[in-house]
Amino acid sequence: MALGPRLSDFPRIRRTLSFYKVSSIITGGFLLVLCLMMVFRYGLGGDIELNGPAGFVTLTPKELVQGINVSTIILIVHGWLYVFYVAADFVLWRLARFSFLRFLYIALGGVIPLLSFFLERQVPRFVNAKLDRIESAAAAKAAGADSAKASV
């Protein structure tokens, strides 16, 4: 028997796809903000400081930040959003019975800038096409079984 999603898991797969799409967009957005923050930190030599002695929002060397370090907040928030993104990827991988390489490929979406936006469109298309093929095959099999019973 071919390894693939079970018909009983289809509603959960579709719910997981919805969560995956939302987490993909949010994680991808924060990854872009994180990239901008890295440009500030390593290119311009300062972290984003909020409400420090130099003004409301300034770039301050990391060691000299006295206000709220927005750069650190961006790092932490993106980290937690990536955890949710990978959790959605894991549940989708487990229910849809993807290969492990596909799981890793999707997980890279939260690490490689702009990849999550591409995957947000590609993964649901792939999964929905797979589910449609399985539903069609199951319907054809059921129709064949019904016609076989009718002829007996």
Structure characterization notes:
With 152 residues, this protein is mostly helical. It has one domain. It has four helices and three strands; from the N terminus they run αβββααα. It has a three-stranded antiparallel beta sheet. Helix 2 runs antiparallel to helix 3. The model has no long low-confidence stretch (mean pLDDT 85).
What's a concise summary of this model?
This protein is mainly α and 152 residues long. It is built from four helices and three strands; from the N terminus they run αβββααα. It has one domain.
Q: Which helices and strands appear, and what pairs or packs with what?
A:
Layout lengths: L9 H34 L3 E6 L2 E6 L7 E2 H27 L3 H8 L7 H37 L1
Antiparallel strand pairs: 1-2, 1-3
Shape: rod-shaped
Q: Structural class from helices and strands?
A: mainly alpha
Strand content: 5-15%
Q: Would you identify the regions where 5 or more consecutive residues have pLDDT less than 50?
A: none
State the helicity in percent bands. Answer: 55-70%
Largest sheet: 3 strands, antiparallel
Widest β-sheet, arrangement of strands? 2-1-3
- Spatial gap, N to C terminus: 27 Å
Mean pLDDT: 85
SSE string, helix = H, strand = E?
Answer: HEEEHHH
Counting DSSP H or I runs of 4 or more residues, the number of helices is 4
Structurally, how many domains make up the residues? 1
Strand element count: 3
Radius of gyration: 23 Å
